[in-house]
Predict the structure.
Amino acid sequence: MGQSTSTPSKPQGWVTVAKKPRRGNLTDDDLKLIEDAYLDAFNLNNDEVLHHLNQEPDQPSTAVPVYSAVEEMLNNNGYFSMKLAPPSEYLQATEAALHPILHFNNFDTKLLGEDRARKAWEEMRPALSLVSAWLSAPEARRRFWHRLMFGVPTTDETGNYYLARSPLEDDFTGASETFSAELDNLAHNLRFYWIPSNTPCGRSSTSQGICFFNLKSIPDRFNKPLHDALRTRSNPAARKYLSAYAPRIGLSTIFLYHLLRPALRRDDRCADMRYQLAIAKTLCHELCHALYKSRLLPNTTEPHVFLRDQVPEVGLSFDFFLGGSRFDLRSGKSFIGRLDARTWQFMLSYPRIGAPVPMEWVGLWFRKDTWEAGREGFREETLWGKAPEAVGVPGPDVFIAHRYAPGNVAGEPGLFKEVLYVERKVVAPVQARGKVDGPGEGVALEEWYAEVSRQEVERARAEGFDEEELVGPWGGYEQSLTRSASERL
Ligand SMILES: [Zn+2]
């Protein structure tokens, strides 16, 4: 297969696959227009969010974290902490050592101002270092990035649109040089923005990042008047502005809260690693969208990167390549909780089931020696796709499921509460012990939960539970699921 494990280098004389219209087609005025449109689209005047980001003091280091009952139990039992080596043994790359995509000048400063934007960027240096490592790791290029960039869009006999292996992938060195060149192109053409989310430090799992490819892709809800004005410009080149490939990645301000208030992370380096991993994953997820789009393929629908992916979304493909599950960080103003790992079926659903990502797995990513030359095999065996507790069948030892607590005669409405199970027995909250059941021995967790949640959602509906909060398994992706479950790998 001609695979080499040499460290990918800068492109040297490798011919780029195709010459594509890039930034070169846009004048400085064009770019200014586009930048203004994005600034507006990202709605940088969200006073409430700015208030939270600007006004609240850093956490005093003596603050006691406020956990939910489930998080409290995990914390007390060591799921959030592990013995760490001295800080010098962990990633903290200099700016020059980071991939240029991640350099500070690619981060918009309008929301925070230059100084605080710089502070936020400095504080996420471990995450930036990790993204750089993910982008350059030979095994990640061979097993993920090259397929994303060179895979041949193909529709199989059951209607799945996916990326088939390209002959270009057989030449690892050549493919790697081309991929490096594509990354360099992107570094000149992409910017990151901080986009206000409704809560300063929320638990939303759906709004951590967003990637716009061009002005056309700015949804109407963000800035319809400007969008219409651009569309109807008398300038005959208006279409050029609208459709020029000018990717912009919005990162949610939920990540800023503890970046700008580092006390909590300084006191708890494990919490900092979970925070940094969540940021790194989001950056890379959105970069996947930008990179795939940069291929400028005629079919704008995203494919399954691999047939094993259960949903056609290139960012999610990376999430599952990374962890074998999709994970989101649970955090609040006074705590940084678990990374909650979920399977394809329940990653977006409400109610849902998930598992805490093991801290050992998180910590290993950030060790410098993990990234030493010759450790590709170690990373493949231990790290990529190996947050194993999250997705085991018949299921992990420790998992957390939303269970329905019905309304009562005192008029309290019914609601879904997190219940922590250890070895299939309810552990927390204590009130749930003996009241809710668990899966029987040998029963696959997802099958059990699919049925339990179906019944409990029915009951919640009957009691008037807010329909808008409910999202079924496969939330929103049902239509794209053309294969039967047995055909999925
Ligand atoms: Zn995505």
